Structures are given as structure tokens and as C-alpha cells.
């Protein structure tokens, strides 16, 4: 029996939904490499800043023409903090540093690497405990002989609902929008990050193979036609590639 009731009106932030999808509901263990997950969580937090109008992604200000112009990989602060969240405050401060220090090159990719490297998984976990989404608990292993501490959702329904959002987004495009509302930016971003982190097999969609679902998730991002979401998902993909190269 759950000690915490599921709040049907609660809308979890993107990073929290992604964290829940990337951890086993029963053991609390990460389902993928934590360095890869950190890149994905950084991407989620960057998109949250964009959702709230704090940053521009993929745009640069042309001082000569006095206007914004598209420029791949660029970051800019649109509105300073506070953002209403310590994690997002930290992410926004890191964006400000990146913009100030790295004046050329792919700022988005550089920001993802730097911010993800700052113990981000642990910081996200600690924040989710603080806001009441995760709880510390002990589990017994090896026939009850060994007790280890883990962190589990306060209600499994939050992870179930996040998976349902992903499946519903795929269903919307598969049925060409019949009888369903179009997914919002956050849901589309969750689809893209799920594909980029290779988490499709943990969505538990019995009607499709993992490969088919991954293709559908990327299709959702493409069809939604929001360049900023595509840019961040692509940068997360590239960031995971950077990790693989560094490990060789």
C-alpha cells in the first residue's frame, strides 16, 4: 500500500519524468550508464529553461543588424533568474558562464558536457527527495542478508504516467491526430530524450519492438516541428557520442 497518494493534477518537470523513466521502479537502480543519463538530464533542464523563457537556444544576437538570427549551437540568456527551482537556477548560472567564456563554437554541446559532469544525477536525486518525489528506503538482497539503501518514487504512478505520456504521443501521430490532443512541448521533448538515451525498451509498449518504438519517438520529434527541441535532442545524442569516444 502506498503511503503517498498520487496527485492526478501534478505536472512533474521534464527532468523528473526522465529520471523516473531511467530508473527501475522496484530497485531504484539506473537502467543506463549514469554519465549518459546526466547528459540527458542536463538536456531536460536546458529545455525547462527554454519552456519558461529564460534562454534562447540556437539563436544569436546580431548587434550590427540589431536583431536575433538563427545560429546552430548558440545559447543566450533571455531572462535572468530566479527560476523557481535550485536546479534550474544552477543551470541558468551555468548558461551565463558558458555564454561569457565560450564565445565561439557549439555552446549547447559544451554546456551539456560541463553541466552534466557536476554530479548532476546525484543533485537531481537530492532535489527530488527534497520536493517529495523520491524517498530513501532499504532493500534486502542475497536472501535478506545484505541491506542496501536506495531511492524509490513515493508513488509508482508517477513513472507509469510518464510512460503513458510517451505512448500517447506516439499514438497521436500513428492515428494522425484522431480522437486525441496533440502532445505538448514537454511530452515531445520526453519522447526525444527517451530515444536519445536508448530508453525505449523500458516504456513497456507491447505492440512494438524497441527499434520500432525508438523510430516512432524520433518521428514524434520531427513531426512536432519545434527546432529547439530537435536541437537539444541532437546535442544530447552527440554528447553521448562524446562520452563513448572519451572512453575508448
Q: Termini separation (Å)?
A: 46 Å
Strand-residue fraction?
A: 5-15%
Radius of gyration: 19 Å
Extract low-pLDDT stretches.
Answer: none
Give me the side-by-side strand order of the main sheet.
1-2
What overall geometry do the principal axes of the alpha carbons give? globular
Q: Please state the structural category.
A: alpha+beta
The number of strands is 4
Averaged pLDDT: 91
Structure explained in plain terms:
This protein is α+β, with helices and mostly antiparallel strands. It has nine helices and four strands. The strands form two sheets. It has a two-stranded antiparallel ribbon. It has a two-stranded antiparallel ribbon with strand order 3-4.
Descriptive terms for the model:
248 residues, alpha+beta, two-stranded antiparallel sheet, two-stranded antiparallel ribbon, 4 strands, globular
Write the layout of secondary structure elements.
Blueprint: H1 14-21, H2 34-51, E1 55-62, E2 67-77, H3 86-101, H4 107-116, H5 120-130, E3 134-141, E4 146-153, H6 157-174, H7 185-196, H8 210-224, H9 227-247
Antiparallel strand pairs: 1-2, 3-4
Helix pairs in contact: 1-2, 1-6, 1-7, 2-3, 2-4, 2-7, 2-9, 3-4, 4-9, 6-8, 7-8, 7-9
